[in-house]
Amino acid sequence: MGPLRLFPLLSAVLAATVLTGCGSSDPASSSASSGSSGSAAASKAPGSSAADGDFPRTVAHEQGSTPLKAAPKRIAAISTGQLDDLLTLGVVPVATTRADYAGLVPGYLRTAFPRQAEALGSMTDIGTRTSPNLEKLAAAKPDLILVNSTQGALYPSLAAIAPTVVTKGRGVNWKKDLLTVADAVGRRERARTLLTRFEKDAADQDEKLGGEHTALSMVRFNPDRVRMFGKKSFTGTIADDMGLGRPESQRFDDISQDLSGERIPQMDGDWIFYSVQGRPGKTDATTYLSNPLWKKLGAVRGGHIVKVDDDPWYLNAGPTAARVVLRDITGHLGR
């Protein structure tokens, strides 16, 4: 397998402000110019003092710091959101993992980066996010490994293979994680520009869509459970960036809570955005969606229910996914 491939950011705005002279006609411009919630928090993410593109550098991360002698050319991305981060920054890794019940490359990323189809197809599949195959990882000969802190126990083993940078993980931290990944590949200012643009675009929707008086409910049907998402979920932070409200039942300070049939009323909101992970027949989605309690929900009776793509909404957490979520919300609420 050859080295990773670098390509320009796809946003027309960023092409003018960040990558002047690097053109692209990819249709994913809005996707690639994404960021995430809370620039104040994101700006506090650890970072090297090196300017973009300058190496050697030392990257501070969740398990210490890692010196990088040269710009990495063969990156392995193990954890949630890191493939999204890299692609949005203009980098294709040589190896990555897959989520349960999902493919190696989420469909929304294939759509956003069509010109990278060949490079994405040549990536080494190194197993699942929760159980990466270290032999396959080593065989891919990475010069940088990215992983998040939920897999922190693997850090010594990974660091023995190649320099390793550990991001925080969990959806609420996706801005900070983007900046850490960007620091490792020498593109931190690009990431800051992405975040600034995203936050402005999200904040511009506040009053247009009803602000905090419009409550968004977020529900996911997994093969083994049904969940509603709280303030610290990836999508919860985007609703916050947009100044939108959440149902009282979903203002809890965590990523998600499991639901049972009798708790269907807690799914209600002004709008419900739900997804089904994997095959619908493998989940309880049909049972819930045909339940009389579901049919009585205000959002259902008002026609304010939207089935969304599970990958960007509830399975991944990155800047291009954030653009998809922002687009979906504004597209439906702004009708």
TrEMBL record:
Chain spans, region Disordered: 25-67
Top-level taxon in the UniProt lineage: Bacteria
Biased segments, Low complexity type: 25-53
Signal peptide span: 1-20
Keyword Signal: yes
Presence of the UniProt keyword Cell inner membrane in the record: no
GO BP, one annotated term: iron coordination entity transport
Domain Fe/B12 periplasmic-binding, residue spans: 74-335
GO CC, any one term: outer membrane-bounded periplasmic space
Location(s) in or outside the cell: Cell envelope
Chief location: other
Keywords associated with the record: Signal, Transport
Family label: Belongs to the bacterial solute-binding protein 8 family.
Protein name per Swiss-Prot or TrEMBL: Iron-siderophore ABC transporter substrate-binding protein
Lineage: Bacteria, Bacillati, Actinomycetota, Actinomycetes, Kitasatosporales
